[in-house]
Structure formats: C-alpha cells, structure tokens
C-alpha cells in the first residue's frame, strides 16, 4: 500500500499539537517558578509584588531548610556511592557473566522498581527499628540504595552491552589481567554510563519521601519530609522556592547526562546508553 506524503497542514497540525502538550506539561512548573518570587505570605498566583525573600529564608544558615538540604545532600551522596558499587558489580555479572537462572536473578534485582515504595519503607522500618538506627543518615542512605541500585544496574547493563567485547579480548590476548582490562579498557569506556548512573542515583535519593518518612526522626528530616510537613500543617511559601530549586537541579542533571551522552557517543562512535534487551 502506497503511503501518501505528509502535507504542510499535517506538519503544522503536529507542531501545534506537540506545542500544546508541552505547554500543558510545563504549566505547573511555570506557576511554581513565578510564585516562588512572590512577596506575600500565602503564595498567590500571579504575585502582586516580587521578592527573593523565600530563597533567602531557604538558604538561611542554621535554619530548618538549610539543615534539611545539607542532610539530604549527605544521604544522596552516600546512596550514590553505595549504588555505584552494587550496581557496577551486579551489572557486570548480568551483562558479562553466565549466571544460572539468569532471568530470575535479573528480575530479582529489579524488583524494588515494581514493589510499592511504602511497602519497602515499612519493611526497612521493621528492620532498622530494633537496631536503634532510626534517624541515622546511614540507615536512610541504605534504604534509598534499595531504590537507586536498580536504576544504576539498568544504566550500567546498557552501557556494558554497548562496549565492544573484542577490545577486552584483544587486551587479554596481549597478557592483560582482568583488573588491568577493567581499569584500562572497560571502565574508561563506561565512564559516561557511570556518570549517568551516579546522577540518577543521587536524584532518586534526594527526592525520595516514603523511606525517609519511615526512618527519620524529628531531629533528622530530609528535604522531602520537611516539604511534606510544611504543606500538611502550614502554608509556607518557602516550599515554592525549594520546589523551584529542585526543578532547576533536575534540569541541570538531565542536561549533564545529555551532554555526557553526546560527548561519549562522539568518542566511542556509538550511543552511550543503547537501549538493548538483556539476553
């Protein structure tokens, strides 16, 4: 059956539809960004007066917001380290190993992405509470690692699948050991994937709420928990400034991943994160 060539009206219609959809999706973000610069204390849109007072309050040294941001950053950093260690190890075994029950193991390591987060949070609470670790940044970071590791594994599996194994075989034929091959061949080529895995692991931890809510105490509240409390018990316009900063960080993180992906693709002559099913 012969396909008809697209018409000018069709191009215009698709462009208008795509623009309308993008504007609809971006509208809540625009409202938050504009409201965050409002001077009133009730967060009205559009603001009658504009001010940066809520950003100043958010960044005030020793304040609740600054303390929560520092705590969330610490927990997210620990989560990133744990996720990379576990993710790289598991991805290497799944992508290059000959594991028995390969599909079952693959499904098991990705199970946290399918199980409701509140269920995982309850299980972690029952695990850490008898050990007296509630409120510990380490306990929260370990809990966040449960959610971040599957993301790191998916990224690293795709990255390792995109590396030509003949390069590793050539190095082995020249007498290089496994550690030398990993240090000189595999990991340098997998650097874009490692950066992407680190970025997404950090974001997963920084934005996570349920596990932090179950494992935190009044003295250790992460940023999402503090935002939830501010919205539940009061109307604090500082939340809009915090939300605007989180949006900016997410955009910067995605831009970084896209830049690394593009540079790595030019360097390797292929896509950094190829979408390829695990076999």
Structure characteristics:
about 280 residues, mainly alpha, 12 helices, about 70% helix, globular, disordered C terminus, membrane, ABC transporter permease
How does the SSE layout of this entry go?
Elements: H1 8-35, H2 53-58, H3 64-96, H4 102-109, H5 117-128, H6 137-161, H7 165-173, H8 178-189, H9 191-206, H10 210-215, H11 223-233, H12 238-268
Helix pairs in contact: 1-12, 3-6, 3-9, 6-9, 7-8, 9-12
Keywords: Cell inner membrane, Cell membrane, Membrane, Transmembrane, Transmembrane helix, Transport
Subcellular location: Cell inner membrane; Cell membrane
Domain ABC transmembrane type-1: 69-258
Can you offer a commentary on this structure?
With 279 residues, this protein is mostly helical. The protein is 71% helix and 0% strand. The protein has helices at 8-35, 53-58, 64-96, 102-109, 117-128, 137-161, 165-173, 178-189, 191-206, 210-215, 223-233, 238-268. Helix 7 (165-173) runs antiparallel to helix 8 (178-189).
How much of the sequence lies in strands comes to under 5%
Low-confidence stretches: 269-279
Major sheet size, sense and barrel closure: none
Write down how many β-strands occur, each being a DSSP E stretch of 2 or more residues. Answer: 0
Backbone shape: globular
SS summary, helix count: 12
Distance linking N and C termini: 35 Å
Helix content: over 70%
Report the average pLDDT across residues.
81
Output the radius of gyration. Answer: 23 Å
Which sequence of SSEs, written as H and E, runs from N to C? HHHHHHHHHHHH
What would you call the structural class? mainly alpha
């Amino acid at each position: 059956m012969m396909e008809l060539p697209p018409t000018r009206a069709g191009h215009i219609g698709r462009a208008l539809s795509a623009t309308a959809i993008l504007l609809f999706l971006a509208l809540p973000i625009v409202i938050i960004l504009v409201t965050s610069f409002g001077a009133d204390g009730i967060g009205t849109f559009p603001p009658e007066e504009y001010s940066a007072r809520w950003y100043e309050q958010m960044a005030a040294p020793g304040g609740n917001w600054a303390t929560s941001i520092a705590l969330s950053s610490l927990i997210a950093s620990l989560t990133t380290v744990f996720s990379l260690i576990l993710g790289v190890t598991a991805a290497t075994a799944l992508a290059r190993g000959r594991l028995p029950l390969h599909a079952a193991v693959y499904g098991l390591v990705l199970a946290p992405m399918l199980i409701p987060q509140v269920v995982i949070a309850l299980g972690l609470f029952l695990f850490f509470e008898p050990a007296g670790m509630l409120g510990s940044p380490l306990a929260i970071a370990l809990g966040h690692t449960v959610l971040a590791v599957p993301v790191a594994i998916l990224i690293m599996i795709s990255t390792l699948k995109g590396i030509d194994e003949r390069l590793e075989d050539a190095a082995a034929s020249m007498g290089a050991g496994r550690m030398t091959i990993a240090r000189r061949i595999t990991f340098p080529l997998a650097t874009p994937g490692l950066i992407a895995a680190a970025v997404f692991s950090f974001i997963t931890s920084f934005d996570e709420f349920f596990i932090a809510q179950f494992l935190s105490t009044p003295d250790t509240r992460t940023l999402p928990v503090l935002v939830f409390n501010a919205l539940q018990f009061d109307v604090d316009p500082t939340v809009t400034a915090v939300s605007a900063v989180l949006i900016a960080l997410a955009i910067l993180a995605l831009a970084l991943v896209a830049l690394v992906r593009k540079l790595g693709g030019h360097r390797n002559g292929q896509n950094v994160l190829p979408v390829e099913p695990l076999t």
